[in-house]
Design brief:
about 170 residues; 5 helices
C-alpha cells in the first residue's frame, strides 16, 4: 500500500473534487467548503487555498493555513488543514491547530491514523512542538485516533468537545 500526504495544488483534479464531495460540509466541526460546489467553483477554491498557504489574500483576522490530501494507492481518501500558528482567539471558540476528515467511502480502514501520522511532520516544519485539537465527544473514531497517538486529554470544551494536546516529535 502506497501512502502519501500531498500539499494542495492548483492542479488537483476531479479525483480530489469527488473525494471532497464525499465529506459533508460540516462533519464534527470540520468545514468542507467544497461539498456542493461545482467543479469550476472547486478549481477557484484551489487557487484561493493555495494563496492562503502563502499568507496571501487572507480575509481579515485569518491565519495562514496549508491544506493536504492523503492519497492511498494514488486515490485521495482524506484532507487535513494545518494553521501556521496557534490562536488564543480560535481556541476560545473551540478550534485547534489542525483539522482533518476522511471521505465516507474510506472510513473504518485506519486512514485517520495514517493521516494523523503524516500530518505531524508538517506541524513540526511549521514550528509546532505540540498541537491542540478540539474533538467532538461523539466522534468516536477521531477520539480513538488521538488516544492512539498518546494525546493528553486536557479537558472538555463546553461539554461538547474533548481538548487534546499532542506532542510533535
Amino acid at each position: 500500500m502506497a501512502v502519501e500526504l500531498r500539499q494542495l495544488s492548483v492542479c488537483d483534479g476531479r479525483n480530489v473534487y469527488e473525494m471532497l464531495q464525499d465529506i459533508g460540509s460540516d462533519e464534527y466541526g470540520f468545514t468542507n467548503e467544497v461539498n456542493g460546489m461545482t467543479y469550476d467553483e472547486y478549481k477557484q477554491w484551489l487557487v484561493k487555498q493555495d494563496a492562503y498557504s502563502r499568507a496571501e489574500k487572507l480575509p481579515p483576522g485569518w491565519i495562514p493555513q496549508t491544506t493536504y490530501f492523503l492519497f492511498v494507492d494514488e486515490q485521495p481518501v482524506g484532507i487535513a488543514c494545518i494553521r501556521h500558528h496557534s490562536s488564543e482567539e480560535l481556541e476560545k471558540r473551540g478550534v485547534g491547530n489542525f483539522g482533518y476528515a476522511i471521505a465516507r467511502a474510506y472510513r473504518g480502514r485506519g486512514y485517520g491514523n495514517l493521516l494523523f501520522e503524516k500530518v505531524l511532520p508538517q506541524c513540526k516544519a511549521l514550528g509546532y512542538t505540540k498541537i491542540k485539537s478540539f474533538v467532538y465527544i461523539e466522534n468516536a473514531a477521531s477520539n480513538r485516533v488521538f488516544v492512539r497517538h498518546q494525546a493528553t486529554l486536557l479537558g472538555i470544551y463546553h461539554g461538547e468537545k474533548n481538548i487534546y494536546e499532542t506532542l510533535v516529535p
